[in-house]
Design a protein that fits this description.
This protein is α/β, with parallel strands linked by helices. The protein is built from eleven helices and eight strands. The longest helix is centred in the middle third of the chain and has 19 residues.
């Protein structure tokens, strides 16, 4: 059941139409970015909880759920994803937003902070560190943990396997990687399946990996400017995809107030597994 406080609309950003969920009408704008294989729904708890003080927006990223799905792999490059969110901030008539991202959403949030910090009044990231930190901490163990990123480079086969048996692999990717059982209900999975079943959605979702992983891992990141936006990093320590050693030293690249919150009993889907802790942490961080 979707909370009645949540409303839905579309924003035309350049040549891409983004579907979004929104709640609240506060003066300050907060944008919540989901990752793979999710959609706006991954932020349903925080979307409502923070709406008493802020205008909160959770878009379906391009390629996901009800947002447009460009056909070319290069349409999913990180620069275009960054432009989408900067355009969304402008769509809401604001000069700045607090951008909070999880998984791919975190990668986009970090990239905004690096390329367009003028659009941010606060920055939040869950589970995924900046690409420079990831590369610095890369180990063979992390390579094995993120094997799927490289498997997704193969054309067509991943789509076939992910769609088999009523999307069993994607359902397992959610249900079987949580620290506690029953984080995702059957009703939740029905909503996810509906999003995955949108035309071209699976390929569009996988194109995030095809457009960015190889290029970003081999790009030079040594001379990137330090992030000058107040930043919060939240990490569920039982994550089996992004390992604890991979997120060490984030504060070293932040030239602004920095907070880091570790949640020992949560895994990758942290804003759903530890919804209250994440919500309270965000509320405190945004109010400071």
């Amino acid at each position: 059941m979707i909370d009645e406080k949540i409303k839905f609309d579309y924003a035309q950003i350049g040549n891409v139409k983004l579907h979004y969920a929104t709640a609240g009408d506060g003066e300050k704008l907060v944008i919540l970015l989901h990752g793979f294989p999710e959609f706006w729904y991954s932020w349903r708890h925080q979307l409502v909880a923070l709406s008493d003080e802020y205008t909160v927006v959770a878009p379906d990223m391009r390629g996901y759920n009800l947002s447009d799905k460009p056909l070319k792999v290069e349409d999913y490059r990180i620069d275009k994803l960054v432009d989408d969110i900067c355009g969304l901030i402008q769509h809401f008539g604001r000069k700045k937003a607090a951008v909070i991202g999880h998984d791919w959403g975190a990668s986009i949030a970090w990239a905004i902070a690096t390329k367009h910090p003028e659009y941010l009044w606060k920055l939040g990231a869950l589970q995924v560190p900046p690409i420079s930190v990831w590369k610095k901490n890369q180990t063979f163990k992390q390579f094995l943990a993120s094997w799927y990123m490289f498997f997704f480079q193969i054309p067509r086969l991943p789509e076939f396997l992910l769609q088999r048996n009523d999307y069993a692999a994607l359902k397992d990717a959610l249900k079987k990687t949580t620290a506690e059982k029953n984080v995702f209900t059957d009703e939740d999975l029905t909503d996810y399946k509906k999003a995955w079943n949108e035309p071209f959605a699976l390929t569009a979702m996988l194109n995030y990996y095809r457009a960015n992983i190889v290029q970003r891992l081999f790009a030079k990141t040594e001379n990137l400017p330090k992030i000058k936006v107040p930043t919060l990093f939240i990490y569920g320590e039982k994550d089996s995809a992004v390992l604890p050693e991979t997120v060490k030293g984030i504060g070293e690249i932040i030239d602004a107030p920095y907070q880091e919150i570790r949640i020992p009993d949560a895994a990758h889907w942290v804003q759903q597994e530890a919804a209250e802790i994440v919500t309270d942490s965000l509320r405190e961080f945004l109010a400071e």
